[in-house]
Design brief:
This protein is of the alpha/beta class. It is 39% helix and 20% strand. The strands form two sheets. A seven-stranded mixed sheet has the order 3-2-1-4-5-7-6, sandwiched between helices. Strands 10-9-8-11-12-14-13 form a seven-stranded mixed sheet, with helices on both faces. Helix 1 (9-17) packs parallel to helix 4 and helix 2 crosses helix 3 (56-63). The longest helix is centred in the last third of the chain and has 19 residues, at 388-406. The protein is elongated and about 80 Å long. The termini are far apart.
Length: 488
């Protein structure tokens, strides 16, 4: 589905006319694999591939449970996609249409994506703007990378009029981000693709045979955009995103968000278990959970015999908590900046993974309100992550150390696109202590090394050693906790 000064519908029909159907047969198409890695929850998503070509990525997404819709300017491409769906026993809807005038209502799809499409348009901004119009959430695009052997080869063939496809250009990451910005999109993540279709097949065959060297090379190339053929970006509509000066809207905390948060698949995850160890709650006491999420900590306190109240401004959160707790817990829809409770109402208040979602002025309001509704002899517990000192300094040190020790980088700290949207105010131990000082006597401390970044047992042991050194632990620990007593 490509249009420009040299391309035409007939040229693309010719391009797809002789293509053969393809059975996925366990070899996951790489764009579908990257989309799954970014989005995490694919089942039930309504997805449009705008410029579908052979449709194999959409077919894989359909097999994972997505409601897929495929559109292309070329009837030949749509026919081939339909045949590939039939061969792979996938279900989808197919359309012939123009990417610059999509025949769908605003916000019709959860995800709109394509690969190898945008580079064929003289006005890529109009294409991305139209994709953004029909998407309620995500726009994902893969294009040729400007600084690649593929681009050099293409330029050489174009010079001698030996290029098989209609006109196309290519993009650097900065150029792609800029056209996204003009289209009203904010790029939240990117990925380089270090192999074409043929090399991808080789890679998939080899990686099943414990080819760790190839894996390390591939991850390094894709992370640092060295030797990549394509770059992909995942973007979100800017008019629905918070920034460092605006509050996070409640509708971003949807079902998908709570599915990708730690603890969904493992209710006794490391973080949840550690929070429960630190919860100073006893039978007969009254506890408030501000930002109660899925209700795990409410359930734990109820098991201790406490009377609990869960509060959140996300209705999805309250629904999940109700599913977990039934009618035995009080659940309140409210904003943390104005707590709907009387003074001195609670013995114990927890604020788990909420601080990083609030601006400084909002934190000040919340802490003032918590101090008001907390009993004079009560206490509060806070957890926030990731520690900004680790993200900005400690992690880069560990990556460099890993390269010196093993000749390869450890992985980047695992951050989902959801965290990029809602983490508007990640803290350091000192910044959190400073925010608490007007209202509480606070014991702020850090724990837990960067176990999610990879490395062997020796490397992980070294991280734990660094976390145990008082002058260094603030740089190498991920989790920040605070135990608080009210200032009288």
């Amino acid at each position: 589905m490509k249009k420009d000064k040299n391309s035409s519908k007939s040229k693309w029909d010719d391009n797809w006319a002789d293509r053969q159907t393809t059975c996925i047969d366990g070899a996951i198409p790489y764009v579908a694999e990257i989309i799954q890695d970014w989005i995490r929850v694919i089942e039930g998503k309504k997805i449009l591939e705008a410029g579908c070509g052979a449709g194999l990525d959409s077919a894989q997404l359909a097999l994972w449970g997505a409601d897929t819709h495929l559109m292309d300017l070329s009837p030949g491409a749509v026919e081939l996609s339909s045949e590939n769906y039939e061969l792979n026993k996938a279900n989808g809807a197919f359309y012939v249409g123009d990417l610059q005038n999509l025949p769908f209502a605003d916000r019709s799809f959860d995800i709109v994506f394509n690969r190898g499409v945008v580079e064929h348009f003289l006005d890529p901004v109009s294409v991305l703007r139209e994709m953004a119009r029909v998407s309620s959430t995500w726009v994902i695009v893969f294009v040729p990378f400007r600084f690649s052997a593929y681009t050099l080869n293409k330029r050489f063939k174009q010079l001698f009029s030996n290029w098989a496809f209609p006109w196309e250009t290519e993009y650097s990451l900065d150029e792609l981000k800029e056209i996204c910005k003009k289209a009203g999109l904010e790029v939240l993540g990117h990925r380089g693709v270090a192999y074409g279709n043929d090399l991808n097949s080789v890679w998939k065959a080899l990686r099943g045979k414990s080819s760790m060297v190839l894996q390390d090379i591939r991850e390094f190339m894709e992370e640092n955009l060295h030797g990549v053929v394509e770059i992909g970006i995942i973007a979100h509509r800017t008019n629905t995103l918070p920034n460092r000066n605006t509050s996070v809207p409640s509708d971003l905390y949807d079902n998908d968000y709570y599915h990708v948060c730690e603890g969904f698949s493992n209710p006794k995850s490391r973080r949840i278990s550690r929070v429960e160890e630190l919860m100073d709650i006893r039978a007969g006491q009254k506890m408030l959970d501000i930002g109660c999420g899925r209700g795990e900590h409410l359930a734990f306190a109820m098991g201790k015999g406490a009377s609990v109240v869960g509060m959140d401004f996300s209705f999805q959160s309250l629904s999940l908590s109700k599913d977990r707790l039934g009618s035995n817990a009080g659940l309140v829809a409210a904003n943390a900046l104005s707590l709907p409770f009387k003074d001195d109402s609670f013995d114990f208040i927890i604020m788990i993974d909420i601080v990083e979602h609030l601006l400084d002025k909002e934190l000040d309001h919340m802490f003032s309100e918590v101090r008001r509704v907390l009993k004079q002899n009560g206490s509060a517990l806070i957890h926030t992550a990731p520690n900004r000192l680790f993200i900005e300094k400690g992690h880069d040190f560990l990556r460099g150390l890993s390269m010196l020790m093993y000749g390869k980088y450890i992985k980047k700290y695992p951050r989902t696109v959801y965290l990029e949207m809602v983490h508007v105010n990640e803290q350091t131990p000192d910044s959190l202590k400073h925010m608490l000082e007007p209202y509480f006597h606070a014991d702020v401390f850090v724990e837990q090394g960067a176990t999610g970044c990879g490395g062997d047992e020796q490397f992980q042991s070294m991280i734990e050693t660094l976390c145990g050194i008082p002058v260094l632990k603030n740089y190498f620990c991920v989790d920040i906790f605070a135990r608080c007593r009210p200032i009288k």
